[in-house]
Amino acid sequence: MPRRPPARNGRHAAILSFAAFGFIALAIVVALEFIDYHAGRYSFIFDRVLGLGRRVPAADSFQRDLAELLAGRGIPHDFVRDRDGITHLKIELAAPLFAPLARDLQRLVARRGGVQVLSEMQGMREQVVYLYQVRFDRRLTHIILVSKRLPLPARAAEPAGPRRAEGAPPAPAANANARARAASRGTPRLAIVIDDIGYADLVSDQLHELGIPVTGAVIPAAPYARSEAQRLHAFGLEQIVHLPMQPKDPANHHPRDQFVLLDSADGEIAALVDGALEAVPYARGVNNHMGSLLTSDEAAVRRVLAALKARGLFFVDSKTAPSTVAYAQARRLQVPTALRDVFLDDEPTYEHAAAQLRRLVEIARQQGRALAIGHPFPTTLAALRDSIPWLRQQRVEIVFVSQILE
Hints:
By secondary structure, the chain is α/β, with parallel strands linked by helices.
């Protein structure tokens, strides 16, 4: 019997392998789409191609209830249903009407067995925008955009002399000497560090658009670390390494090649710092990402600080734990350092960030300098942007973190 040529056998095997690979890939895609469809999420294959997207009666009833409620209160609104069956609703109302509507919206969703989530909030000078997602039968059925118009504040005449932060209580008499000492040191300085740069692209552009000195703390292993570091440098903004350190919570994943751990040897720490400086080449210093466990351990902190000192880097203690000894050890080892005074967004809302900026000014007046740390949340950046005109009136100087080191 004649034997089949080897070349033909090879082509036949390649075709079969390719077909098998394609079948497996298609099966995986269909399985993932089915999981989304079964879980109530949008599925291109089952909802769009096969036309199996189902109407949700509870969502239709909620839509009628809400339309009647808005019409009864004379609240302007508009809506459109997209090709995926999701209703996009836009509501605009005055500030006093917002709280009652928010309560009733939650009530209407619950009445029909749905779930409502506030997915985003952005504050602007004249309004605050809330974005809600509503789900019935585990399917996203409504996206509701509520614009709350804010009243324009009246401009009142201000007394001459030093100003107190808006909304802050009068300083107790015990602070008078501290204020006098701060005044003798000159204009109070405050610095703002924005952590977690590198997880999203073009955050650097948003910091540049603020028009003030801001220090970006870049996660070295983040996907956009190098490009964001380059853009920060091009914009003339300061950058530091946001160096991951071991937290107290054991549930947090901390791979050894990215985190400084409690038992990291000197060589491991040096390698991590050098690798971070390759990703963030213009960094002048370091602050800790997480690190509640490590910064509370004196021996581990001293090993980290020794590596930073050898490379001429300063250290900012993010104070992720009350028990931190990092700041005190840095001063003892004569590593230039600073300690975080305020978190801007430990509550990730516009109102909280705006209030924390006012607290930051008050601390700067008391101490002569103050440091805030925040994250590139839309609410934080919006509060910061809106507060800049006010900050510029407060007789404080906004500087990079390297300008308030001790």
